[in-house]
Amino acid sequence: MIEIAANNPKLKSWVEVPANSDFPIQNLPFGIFKKEGVKRVGVAIGEKVLDLAGLQNHGLFDGMGLPDGIFDKEYLNDFMNLGKPTARKVRDRVSELLQEGNEELKNHYALQSVLNDMDKVKMCLPVQVGDYTDFYSSEQHAFNVGSMFRDPDNALMPNWKHIPVGYHGRASSIIESGVPIHRPKGQQKPNEDEPPVFGPCKLLDFELEMAFITCGQNQLGDSISTEEAENHIFGMVLFNDWSARDIQKWEYVPLGPFLAKNFASSISPWIVTLDALEPFRIPGPKQDPEVLPYLKYEDNKHFDIDLEVAIQPEDSEEKVVGNSNFKYMYWNMAQQLAHQTVNGCNIKTGDMYGSGTISGPDASQFGSMLEISWKGTKPVSMPDGSERKFIQDGDTVIMRGHGKKDGVRIGFGEVSTKVLPAK
User: Which residues are identified as catalytic?
Assistant: First the structure.
């Protein structure tokens, strides 16, 4: 494990951080916030957003070699493109400024203008996403789906334990938390003996995922090894990859999902760096059969991050319907990126890679309504007395995630999305 000064569990901040906050001084995730109509780069600390553009303008990053105006941006891409070593220096400097006993920023005349209440600014999409890949890397999820639509003895397809299965999706409809979506429309075939019909999706579902975002790039024709992969992984967000199950069932042969997936994917607004997640590294599962050499890796590349998903019906309280953990991944991020590029595919800063639905071995740990309700055969009761097999109009789906170790909680905030009726 890499020793990173900003991760020291003994650090305290002079900024008040509530108990069980996702954003202690050991986290310091990056995001884009809007204040008075202007977007800038910020860092979360407790219930505050620290304006990095303001810090730079007041000379608090002097001597670090940062380009002028690097934090006066609508997206994080330009900053991320400077590379992880630069991001680490910035995070270390912010940690230093926020540490208990450091008066440099605390007593600065500009403090009130650079430290903003989180509930008084608007969080925005943190990156301009160029390309998007969705993987299918949780063994329990793949087993559950295969058991439903084939049989338990043939649940996993023959290639599943040999390659990190994935597909290239669209980037245009990746949205930040708080942006509502409309129920998608498309073709469905509810009766096998009758022609397809067109209309609003009837089996709308969430997928509890995480996503990593890349920085830097490789040249077309060059691959990235599992050893090099994390040099290109800037950080992670929570990821709700919405799915229209009835549309998907009719359209996915032979090329896979299309309209069933491209209407929206929702992400949390704060990018938690891989540096901040360093304490939560754990060994991965034994991969059997043995993987090909380009997918082999050393050290711990899986992460212990607790996840939960809740449904909140309109005018009602929420109910947690699933608890999972990022450790339930069969294929890790380094393997996913190595596989994506082994054929010479080039990546760019701001590309996003979904993990695929993350389901644990217990029914309480499933990561989609398809699994939780087992294709609609096991409805889930809501606090208002209603039941859910899939997501209804007016429902808000909320996902949260955090790691906890040595008394320090590193969280992602939440991704919350309300479903509106089809247009």
Answer: 141
